[in-house]
Amino acid sequence: xxxxxxxxxxxxxxxxxxxxxxxxxxxxxxxxxxxxxxxxxxxxxxxxxxxxxxxxxxxxxxxxxxxxxxxxxxxxxxxxxxxxxxxxxxxxxxxxxxxxxxxxxxxxxxxxxxxxxxxxxxxxxxxxxxxxxxxxxxxxxxxxxxxxxxxxxxxxxxxxxxxxxxxxxxxxxxxxxxxxxxxxxxxxxxxxxxxxxxxxxxxxxxxxxxxxxxxxxxxxxxxxxxxxxxxxxxxxxxxxxxxxxxx
Length: 247
Hints:
globular, about 35% strand, alpha/beta
């Protein structure tokens, strides 16, 4: 863990969706990061007012660079600036990476089930990228609950990584809650216990779970998994503000 604040350079930016953007930061003396960690970003106003927010790392880079993906919150103090105001060449105060529990290790050969609610896919994407970079043969499966196709982060990269015959095993199940792509076989709808049970790795394989999303989503999905016979000790969760349900 890096507890001191450092000044990071913004070296690249790109849009993920209409209200989310990925920032690549070069952090002095950073020597890689673990998939699942997060960093704190601090903004200081001209009058000295400061706001600090935590953002999950999305990348799997061994260098002094990392990426965060930020979704704009309508009433946010920090996210609107990061999504619309920051440009390449700007500098941000950063602390971290932080966290050693909600992380995936490349030497873990366990079947791994990732479950994302909306922007909760960000730290899971770091795990998916690390899984690919390490050429791990551990079965990886992602269940991604998202409102509509336009809200999907990392769409093209996920499609490429999940192609049949890929170097690393990855399966993806999308659950669209409000609108579905043309030709999608099912109407939009919330994730429920039955769909969850059909979509995740079976309990008999004793998979490791990483779940990230709004508090209500994470708690509901965790309860359903335990009720379905999964080992609670194999379930790790990361949550952010809000009380949204399994949507």
